[in-house]
Amino acid sequence: MAALRPLGFRFLRTAQVKQLNALIEGPRSCVRDAGMLESAINSPINQQHYGQENDPFQLGAILSHKITKNHAFANGNKRTALLAANLFLLQHRSLQQDAGDWSKNNALTQAQEHVAMGTMKESRLADIYRTVWHQSHDTTDSRNSFASLPES
After folding, report:
1. How far are the Cα atoms of 29, 86, 120 from residue 126, in angstroms, in the given order?
2. CATH number where 79 lies
3. Which of 66, 70, 81 is nearest to 121 (CA)?
4. In whole angstroms, how far apart are CA 99 and each of 1, 13, 103, 111?
5. Do 98 and 27 touch, CB atoms closer than 8 A?
6. Which of 31, 117, 120, 123 is most buried when burial is the number of CB atoms within 10 A of its CB?
7. Where does the pLDDT of residue 27 fall: very low under 50, low under 70, confident under 90, or very high at 90 and above?
8. Could you give the 3-state DSSP secondary structure of residue 2?
9. Which domain covers residue 115, as residue numbers?
10. Would you say residue 115 lies in a domain?
11. Within-domain flag for 9
12. pLDDT surpassing 60 at residue 121
């Protein structure tokens, strides 16, 4: 079967996500389940192709959610998921945030914890990405920005 070639999006490849995990885990990096990793990486591709999803924040959230929930790596799944989604969004010029803004990074980290616990859906994670990365540079504390988002 021919591989899908979605138009308009540059999706991450398996080798790239493995490299992200290797950056996090170093020599301890280990794929626990290659099939689950492939499933996670193909999820946003399938949603874009078959579901006609064209929101990069939703596609990034799908990727992040699936990497976290599929638990394909021995360690570092949440961190790898967050980096993978960030890389995907950077490729599509969707990020407008200083990577050194620790309060926003903390909000995303907390969201990943909720995904891992099964208390957050992909659509809610997409809302958080959208909110955190598009907040104006005001003086409000964004550490709890995800807590005020409506449930979806």
Report:
1. 27, 12, 10
2. 1.20.120.1870
3. 66
4. 40, 23, 10, 17
5. no
6. 120
7. very high
8. coil
9. 14-148
10. yes
11. no
12. yes
Q: In this structure, is residue 132 part of a structural domain?
A: yes
Query: Which is nearest to 80 in space by CA: 115, 118, 131?
Result: 115
Six-digit token string for 114: 């909720």
Q: How many domains does the chain have?
A: 1
Alpha-carbon gap, residue 55 to 100, rounded angstroms: 25
Cα distances (angstroms) measured from residue 56 to each of 47, 49, 89, 107, 138: 11, 13, 7, 19, 24
Give a yes or no: residue 5 inside a domain.
no
Over pLDDT 90: what percentage of the chain?
Answer: 58
pLDDT (average), residues 69-89: 94
Q: What is the pLDDT of residue 91?
A: 85
CA of 4: how far to CAs of 74, 99, 110, 147, 150, in Å?
28, 32, 33, 37, 34
| CA dist., res. 37 & res. 72, Å (int) | 5
